[in-house]
Structures are given as C-alpha cells and as structure tokens.
Amino acid sequence: MVYVNINGKDFKAAEGSNLLDVCENNGIHIPHLCHKKGLSPVGVCRLCLVKVSGMRGLVPACSTKVTKGMQVITHDEEINALRRVNLEMLLSEHEHNCLTCESNGRCELQNLVYEFGIDAVRFSINKETKPVDNSSEVIVRDPNKCILCGRCVRACREIAGKNILGFTDRGPAVAIGAGFNEPLGFTECASCGACLQACPTGALTEKHARFEGRNWEFNKVRTTCPHCGGGCQMELWTKDKKVVKVYGVEEENTENKGNLCVKGRFGLDFVQSPERLKKPLIKKNGKLEEAEWDEALTLVASKFQEIKNTLGPDALAGIASSKSTNEECYLFQKFIRTCFGTNNIDFCTRLCHTPSAVALTRAFGGGAMTNSMSLVEHADVLLVAGLNLTEMYPVFASAMKQRVLSGNLKLIIIDPRRTETAGYADVWLSPRIGTDIVWINGMLHVILNEGLYDDEFIENRTQGFEDLKEIISKYTPARVEEISGIPEAKIIEAARLYGKARRAAILYGMGITQHIHGTDNVGGLCNLALATGNIGKPGTGLNTIAKQNNGQGAGDMGCLPPIYPGGQPVSNPAVQGKFEKAWGVNLSPKPGITEASMILDKNAIKGLYVMGGNPMRSGPNISRIQNVLENLDFMVVQDMFLTETAKIAHVVLPACSFAEKDGTFTNTARFIQRVRKAFDPIGESKPDWKIICDLSQKMGYTMSYGHPKDIMNEIASLTPPYGGISYRRLGKGGLRWPCPQKGHPGTRYLWAETFTTPSGRGMFSPADYQPPAESPDKEYPFILTTGKDLYHLQTGSYTRNSVALFNLSPEDVLEIHPSDADQVQVKNGEEIHVRSRRGSMKIHTKVTDRVPEGTVFTTLHSDKVAVNALTIDALDPMAKTPELKLCAVKLEKPA
Amino acid sequence: MQQVAAPLEDERAKTLEIIENNNHDPKRLVKILQEIQAELGYVPEIAQRLTAKKTNTPASQIYGILSFYNFFRLFPPGRHSVNVCLGTACYVKGAENILKEISSRYELEPGQTTNDRRFSLDFVRCVGCCAIGPVMTVNGKVYGKMKPEEVKDVLGEYK
Q: Domain limits at B37?
C-alpha cells in the first residue's frame, strides 16, 4: 500500500493499481467511456485525462498505474474544457437521437453530456447513416450510435473468448465489424451478450426488448439464474409481469463476475410464456379441465389419503425437482415424510448424478463438488471428462479458456466428441463410449509405474492403496488402447500431465455418470485424485458439474430416499428422533425407493406426487415409463407448463416461476444464493412452497410459514452444513456450505484436513472394466449417445418456451459422421429413422466429424423428438442411474 | 499486375500451400496474406476463411488486418491497376478532380474494379514525383501533370 495525493488529499492505494479505479473507489468521479472494470484499459476516449506531477501533458487515468507519492489533479478548468471538447466531438460523429433509443436513461454518453451541460454541439453533425444490423436473434447493432470505445471488442475477446467483434478499416472510416465484416447473425457468435452489457451507448441493444419498456420504468431485482448449476447472479429488469432485460451482476464475490450466457441473458422470457398454466387442471372424462384451487387440493388430499389408508404409506411416493428452491425441496420431502409417512422421495438427479453422490461419499465421506469455480485460478492442470463445458456451463468455460490462453492452465479433455473445448486442450482423448474406467485405470497405471503418485499423501490420508495396485496392474497402456481405442502414447501423455502437475483438478459430467457402471467411473476418478494427492487443496479435487440450478440443493435438502436434509440417514434412530421431535410426527426408519423404481417398476407404488419433474422425457425407455405412470391410481404434477408428464396426470397444479417467489438455490459448487421475487405470480399460479403448505393443511398436518425465510430458519436448525445460513447473511451475497454456525464464513474447498468416511481416510475403490448393457451388433450397428446444446436445458420445458432460445435452436438434430452418412446414404439435413430395441424416432441429420465413426449423437430438448424412447433402462446397481449415454441403434432412410 | 481471378479450387489449393509453407503460424499472418495477394492478385473470401481456420485466428482479426492496410485487396483486381496520388502536393494541384473524372467515367469507386475487370482504381499517398503533380500511375507507369480531360486518352490506351 502506498499513499497518493489526489486533488490535495492523501489516499491509500495498492501500488500498481489503476488510477481511475482508485479515484472512483474513493468517491472522486472521473468521466470515462472506454474504460470498464474487468476489461483491459486502452485509453482511447480521452475523457479521463488527468494531470500527474512529473508526467508530460495530460495522461489518461484508466491506463496510468498508481505509484508512491503520486500527485494527481483530476479536475480543473483546463481539464474540464478538454473533456467537454472531446464529448462534443463524439456527439458530432452521428446524430444521437435519444428519443428512439433503447438505451435512453441508461446511456453513459447521455449521462456525461448532461453532466457537462452540453446544450448545443459546436461542430457540424455527421448525418450520414449506416445500416442497422438486425441479423442476430438477440442483439441489434446500430453503428450510428457507436462511439468506437471498443468495449464490446474487448468483452468479446476477454470475457467471452470468442473474438467475433473487431475494428475494421482505419482513420475516419474505422468501425466495429463482426467476423469477416458480416452480419452478426452469420458469425459464430454465441449470443452471450457480453458485448451488449459492456456497451456504454445504444449501439448494442436487446432485440426482444425493443419497445417493451423504457429504462426508468423497470423494476430491478437481483436474483440467481434458474438455468444451469452455475448460480450466476443477475439483475432482472421487469415490467408488467414480464422479464424484459437481464444484466450480470458485476461483483467480485459472485461466481460469474458479471458474465452471463445466452440462456441467462436472453432465455428468461419463458416466465411470461403464453403456455404458462394459470389454473389447476383436473382430469374429467379423460380430459384435463380447469378447476378452482380448493376443488383440486381437496381432491388431491382425499385421493392420497385413500391410497395411504388402504395400501399403506409406502404405496405413495414423491419426485422433487432440482429446479425448485431449497425451501421448497425441504418442504416437499417434509410433506412426503410427514403427510405420506414414507421415505419414497427422490428427485431427477437419480437420472444423472447420483453415481457421484454414491462414489464421492464412499471415497471422501460426502457427495458434493469438492472445490469451487475459483479452482481455475489455482490449478495447473484441469482434466475435464464427459463434460461439454462450453454448452453445459458456458460462463465457467469462458473463464477456463481465458486461463488456458494466458498459458497458466493445461487442459486434458476426455470426450468421444470433438467438443469446442477440445480445441483448447493439450491432450484430447476420445474413448469408445462406455470404456471410461479403462482410460482412468490406464492413467493410474502410468502414474504408479512412473512414480508420479504422492506417497506421503497415500500413507497419511488414504486406505486401500494395495488393492488399487493389484487391479491397476492389469491396465497397461497397450491393453487400454485395445479396449478404449485411445492410442497408448496419448494415455501416457495425459497421465504424465496430470501426475506431474503441482495442482490438478478433475471436472466431470454426465458422460461419466450415466452408465451402468457410473459409480465405478466416479470411483476411478477419486482414485486418481487420491493417488496424486490432488484433493483437499485449492485448485484440485473432484468437481461434479450439476446440470440444474438447484441439483445440489435438492439433495442437500434430503429429497433422497435414505437421508434427511444434510445427509442424515433415516435409519439412524438418533436422527429419526431429532426429526420426529422437530416435525411432531412419527417417521419411518425404512429407506424409500428410488425414482428409477417409481417410474420403471409397475406396481411399486400407486400414488405419485411430481413437483417439477418430467420423467416422460428425461427417463430412459419412455414407453415403459408411460406404461408404469398410466397404471398409477393417482398422479399429481405440479409445474409451470403442461409437460409430457403433466399431460398424463390426474391433477395438474400450476406453479409459478423463480421470478415470482423468494427462496435460495445452491449451485453446483455448494454456493447458497438468494432468489428474489420480481412480481406477483401470473394467473392463479402459486409458489411451490405455498401449494405444499395448502395441501399439507388439507391432509391434516399444519405447515405454517409466513415467508420462505422462516423455512430457511427451520432448515438451518436441522441441517448441520446449513446451520449458519439465514436470509440476513445471504443478503450481501452467497455462502458456501459447510457453514455450520452463524459466524462461519463458509468453506471454499472440502477435505482440507480430514475425510468424513468412517475411518477418516480417503478410500480407494478400484473397479474392473465391464462392458456396457448394450453393444452395437449386426442388427443395431450404431451407438446412440445423448447430451445437450448451448441453448437448451434438459427436456426444454423452460428453454423451449423462450422465444429467442427456441429460434436459435428449434429442434434436436442427429449428428452423424460423414462416412456413416455415406454408408446409410443420408445427406446433411435429411430426415432419418433411428430405431433401437425399445423405440424409434424421426430426426433431421447434421453431418459432422465432431462425432466419431459409428456413433450418432443427439440432444433431448425437443418435444417433437423423444430420444429417450430409444435409450436403455439398464441401471447402475449402486446408484440406480440408467445408462442414458449409450444404446445400440440402426439408421434407416424413410421410404 | 496482370493476374485475373483464379478458379475457386485453384485459389483454395494455393492458399493452403502458402499457409503450409508458413507453418500455420499466426504470427506470420501479414506475411501469409501478402503472399496470398501476390499469388492470387487479391485476398478472396475463401482465402480469408482458410487462413482463419488453419492459423486458428479469429475472423475479425483477419478482416481487421485486411481492411487496415490499404495494400490489401478484397476484390479481384482489374487487368490494369490505376492509382491516383492524393499526397499533399498532388492534392493541392487538383488530384481530386482526376480521381473524380475516372470514377464517373468508369463508374467505380477507389478500391473497386470495373465489371469487365478492365480497371481497378485506388488512390495512394505520394509516389515520390511531387514535382510533376498531379500524378497518376497505370500498371506502375507514371503520368505527370495530369488534367481531367487527359484521363480519357491515357486510359484509352489500356484495353
């Protein structure tokens, strides 16, 4: 820290920090346009000119570093006159017509002109207009309002890492161009809108916000994004019960630091979709008809009560959702356990990430992402397996790519498809699908053979290393190549990179877990981390990337058959006693059945309560699921939309969106953050927590909460990792659990000192390769694998209802390798029949060498195409997660 | 400059060869683009796209370079390259009128080529013959003390 003298007063500042930031932080306002925090300084707008003693002329504060004893004058007559002239010249560049501008009221140029009191421009105004670029689905580019500050160019490069925008031409002709000076919509723009958030004027604006409201008319609310598990902080600008504009919150203590992806910024209009359910629906004569709340809830309560009375509590079950808030998930499992009297409660993670929970608990003692997003700042090597980061979690992918480009991070990508991140990788491995444990064991083989393991860590903190060595010895790189198809040399290269790193972190996704041996796969990755001591430190660990906004939270809240909130076992009598006392009822000590049983086993249950899930699209082998669900005596679906599952329910209860309620989400990195209400529920829809309370009342058990904050207080009192959480504390930002007491600052990374396994040690759990449930054969020669695209999430019930997202990606397509396309004689864009032993679909092709030969890929977002009609319902024996990532199919040209 | 636009496949092959010779090195971007122009007479769109892809350089950066330097051509050159000097000395002696005359007579703006590929027109900043300004050059040959009414005759020589 040094002292600098600004306008005769001394201020403390870090040496080398940015002079403009130091002034602004100390309340000294310096006009500026081209500078923006988070972007590199360029000093082109010449508005922040200041006088610094000892420096010649005036210097731009934004590109001047603070030095000891520096003397600065920020305002005097000469400086003001210069700033004024510069502003006037900017104004003369174009006719800045604020009357018709979408940025009117939030324009930085307008603010400065007003501040300087410029009521007439002395220079002649250039009235020549250039054409407006409307080609993008989401962004309008109006070069006539551009002041050439270059903030958009830097945002596209330094935040998004896309480099779509750049300066073209020179001298007076300089302009901002996209790609090869094309319309923006023709480029590879990812529509993240970082440029738009950075733009100080109306040159870049939201297309769908045009004439939807002027900037002072909006209600502005800070909340958490409801799409993926990233937990981006955003400000919703709403008007007349519509989300019109969305901006990232530019604060250091957020996960996204102001950045958003296309879904967060332009994909929240599903909230005001005309498809929203506005009244309860009751099935009468085979048709869902609108009804009043009281009638619907009375019917639901009596039907559930009837099943409970005649067949017992275990004939009932509930499926929660990783889209609901923590408070709602907590109440839902409380409702199932108290009113139903069963532990038959599960949620959609069963179909994706439960193998992580099982394997991580076995290895370390708890199932959650061990580190946080800041791991990229500390890791030297990142191993990303079965995870398409760019499309799954774009904001984090951008941060990662920036680290790679700066030379501070090496990247190992394991994905059968050549994903965008593979282009940034030092090593890219493309294994045959379903052979993950083989390359994992192969890497361990090299690490053990070449002495790259951490014997001190193994000795002091782990158990079972000898068993590991025995199994691993069979996985020579040559054998690994034979089974997985990964060349020997590549396995060795990847193993050395990971093994020699000072700090290496593993990130993985559903490519690892959605297999019948998903638990083994995650266990194998745990072995890698334990053997190299890459756990319990910053920049290391096993990092599961949850695909939904509250996938972590719903599990934390005990929406799982064997555990109460905070992972406390239902079979433990002391725990049972604690919850019986708190909830005032007798509880069942018997662990319940999983979602896989609920939706795949006929007669496992008779009554089902689904809050926000859509197993009719997300589950495997849909025709079997339909058969099971239609056989139920009674099914209630509580959702914002009439999903495919809701269509076959007996009663549908209209839930409201995240924008219409208060609560919290816990992101994939254990970060608990507030969700804030922007407006009252649309139609007669209600927040999930209110519906549960009302229904509970009807079933004779009173749950009375005035506000979700009261629910959080109850959660904190019963859930040790959430013990220190309250709305008051969350008001200033998020907290990362474990946060056991009121004063606790939260926990950046897990397992620093000890593990919470029974032995307190990290447990190796070696596993052998087993072939997948179904392999390609003569009749079904292709492998079908599934995933997501950038614009949608899961079954698309949110994203398909966003106008922009739907237009950006209107349908699922089948990616097929050019040589396979030749073989089945199908051209790019043609329709093809895909058949498995369970079902078939018609889908348009996209011929690309992104997929390997013999493998076809598609997404599961569309309501028109149901890829899960084809997938296999074989389950991981421990986690009960289906093998959604792989089944055998044949391809036929339609007659 | 006597080149005419090469067929697409040829442009593609030649571009790839030049990028290959430069080891796909993004640090040699300007050199690569110069060599492409020397070979093909201009930098066609296909060459821009290939250079971006093969050197792993953003499209915006390629276009930024091509549009920054006056030297680069984005359109196929004509059989005859006409340059009018707009350097200070030529300018005060009325070079702008020479340029206007050519523009209106052949309906083309600086940076463009006539539809029949006969002429491409551009302006330069000083060719080092200030004493005989205003100056224009055709295929490198210098014509000094030009008058607008002489344009027709001079260019008429070039078919």
A: 8-68
Preceding omega of A569 cis (within 30 degrees of 0): no
Interface of A with B in 777-816 (CB under 8 A): none
Which tens digit of pLDDT belongs to each residue from A789-823?
899 988 888 999 999 999 999 999 999 999 999 99
* pTM recorded for the entire structure: 0.91
The domain tally of chain B equals 2
Which residues, in sequence order, are bridge partners of residue A543?
A: A507
Q: At A389, which amino acid appears? A: L
Q: Are residues B31 and B86 in the same domain?
A: no
Contact between residue A652 and residue A276 where contact means Cβ atoms under 8 Å apart: no
Helix (H) or strand (E) holding A395: helix A394-405
Q: Report, in angstroms and rounded to the nearest whole number, the Rg of chain B calculated over CA atoms.
A: 17
pLDDT score for B76: 84
Mutation site, B50, B65, B67, interface A, largest A CB count within 10 A: B67
Residue B120 lies in a domain: yes
Q: What topology does CATH give the domain A281-351+550-563+591-736?
A: Rossmann fold (3.40.50)
Contact A188, A179 (CB under 8 A): yes
Quick check: B51 contacting A, CB < 8 Å? no
The ipTM (two decimal places) reads 0.81
Min Cα separation A157/chain B (Å): 10
CB A461 within 8 A of CB A532: no
Query: Please, what CATH class does the domain formed by A782-892 belong to?
Result: mainly beta
Say if B63 is an interface residue toward chain A (CB within 8 Å). yes
Q: Which two tokens stand for residue A604?
A: 């496992």
Backbone angles phi, psi at A128, to 5 degrees: -70, 125
- Cβ atoms A536, A530 nearer than 8 A: no
Grade residue B7 by pLDDT with cuts at 50, 70 and 90.
low
Query: Domain for residue B73, yes or no?
Result: no
Q: How do the residues of chain B divide into helix, strand and coil, expressed in percent and rounded to 5?
A: 50, 10, 40
Fill in the amino acid letter for A310: T
